Amino acid sequence: MKHPAIARQEQAQQTRARLVEAALxxxxxxxxxxxxxxxISLAAGYSKGAYYFHFDxxxxxxxxxxxxxVDSQTGRLKVTGRRPVATELLEMLSLLLRYxxxxxxxxxxxxxxxxxxxxxxxxxxxxxxxxxxWIVLLQKLFEKADGEGLISLSVKPNIAASxxxxxxxxxxxxSLLTLTTEGEFTPSEVANALLxxxxxxxxxxxxxxxAPAVRRTxxxxx
Length: 222
Prior knowledge:
mainly alpha; disordered C terminus; Arc Repressor Mutant, subunit A; Tetracycline Repressor, domain 2
């Protein structure tokens, strides 16, 4: 039998997790401004008292969701070092751009996060810090792959990193505006197309990251 203190701690963690999950659904479906603490509490199956035991305000739980998303995206940009850099680069981009069915509510929430960044200084500073960190992570990976002769960039590494994040944000907005799945493309296809924009032809004998039929023919920069 678990010690009562441990059992209470686990129950509290479970309650908090259910509140956060409920907040994700409520914010995504109703928007931050229309959502209420009462609706979040009811969706999680708890009272407002239970909510305020864990969070001081609606803003607090919104910031926790933002932190969760930032941590998740940062994790997708981590290099394991167990495979060739070129392979990890392509897989990383595909993963970063992927929002499958399990991420549907996150897709809906992201425009809310961006909108709140214009009104809430805490949201804005968190986003600025996250995007700045992601730029650095992507830039270092591009620099490493380029330095090892695995790829040849047609733009500066920081610009390549910025293009990746711009593609991510654009795909999120496009997914919300598209009413049909006809002609849709996979994250891997988008990653390949993106690499064709920011890469020149790989060195002779090096790994090919993109399909030969669409590989750019820009000469490798000196």
